[in-house]
Amino acid sequence: MEHTRRLALRALIGGVLSLAALGAHAQEKQITLGFAQVGAESAWRTANTVSVKQAAKEAGINLKFSDAQQKQENQIKAIRSYIAQKVDVIAFSPVVESGWEPVLTEAKNAHIPVILTDRSIDVKDQSLYVTMIGSDFMEEGRRAGRWLEEHYKNDAGPINIAELQGTVGSAPANDRHSGLMEIIKNDPKFKIIASQSGDFTLAGGKQVMEAFAKTYGKQINVVYAHNDDMALGAIQAMEEAGIKPGKDVNVVSFDATKGGFEAMIAGKINVDVECSPLLGPQLMTAVKDVVAGKQLPKRIVTNETVFPMSVAAQILPQRKY
Ligand code: GYE
């Protein structure tokens, strides 16, 4: 009797457990995420792509990934194809800030939520995206500006700045410029004597710096490069032109990649403002939350700091990108 009762109880527990498993399974319908990446223009971008792919895998999310080769039209095509494939969520890092209304309206009409990562967009209708996960590029520009103010506080100037801009019309290029201007605009000793885009690439940075070196030579006191790849290209160009980066010219850069750190240790970049590309885990959490119907904050800001040359050797071993 005792035995039969135990058997029955065991069967009952087994049944309940398999029902629970069934329920969990039904809930866990795999999420498909379409991600439209900017390109592969920089070390930052490579680390960002690895982070997104790895985090999707770890989160059990089915990732469709495309590379727009830094062209907005390619990104728009990729987003349209994700809409046609009826993915659950679309995420993308917008190449430039403007021109997104039509395609995002199509996504909205198809009831596919859109998450922005890394770069922001300029749209009137804020309902075209759920949230924006990434850095505060204005603040990064201000941080660089504050470093310059502090560094040159006992120097009457003039301090001539040559600026290597990122991709024209991109949020980081616009904001790293504006953030700097906000800090130095009331101090007439700082002058931007040259400003041109190197499209965030090493080759672009090198080419623009070659031209700057020819035109302005020793007049340049500061190179303000919107990312490490362009700073590294500019360093090559300066060395070829007989200018000592980090000594004759102060080099200010962004991202704080391993390449940037190595250049600081070699004495060639003076300060590197951090910008983290490791956005994958935060993105996957947001994707799951959106699918689960949770309310997300409109803006999720990454935590970042500034690294002067003097701390580079000590910090480099802890850097992940
Ligand atoms: O600084 C640069 C990359 O959007 C923050 O894009 C990103 C920028 C980053 O190409 O290296």
Q: Could you say what the CATH topology of the largest domain is called?
A: Rossmann fold
Helix segment count?
Answer: 11
The structural domain count equals 2
Amount of helix: 40-55%
Query: Low-confidence runs (pLDDT<50, min 5 residues)?
Result: none
Give the second-level CATH assignment, the architecture of the largest domain: 3-Layer(aba) Sandwich
**Shape verdict:** elongated
Sheet-strand content, in percent, reads: 15-25%
Count of distinct strands? 12
GO molecular function, one term: carbohydrate binding
Organism: Trinickia terrae
Protein name: LacI family transcriptional regulator
Domain Periplasmic binding protein: 39-294
Overview of the molecule:
The chain has 321 residues and is α/β, with parallel strands linked by helices. Helices cover 45% and strands 18% of the residues. It has eleven helices and twelve strands. It folds into two domains: 30-135 and 277-303, Rossmann fold (3-Layer(aba) Sandwich), CATH 3.40.50.2300; 137-275, 3-Layer(aba) Sandwich (Rossmann fold). The mean pLDDT is 94. Helix 2 (43-59) packs across helix 10 (280-291), helix 5 runs parallel beside helix 6 and helix 7 (202-216) crosses helix 8. Strand 1, helix 2 (43-59) and strand 2 (62-67) form a beta-alpha-beta unit. It has helices spanning 2-27, 43-59, 72-84, 101-109, 137-151, 171-184, 202-216, 228-240, 258-265, 280-291, 312-315; strands at 32-37, 62-67, 89-92, 114-117, 131-134, 159-165, 190-197, 222-225, 250-255, 271-274, 299-301, 306-308. The strands form two sheets. It has a six-stranded parallel beta sheet, with helices on both faces. A six-stranded mixed beta sheet has the order 7-6-8-9-10-12, with helices on both faces. The site of beta-D-fucofuranose has 13 residues, from helix 2 and strand 9.
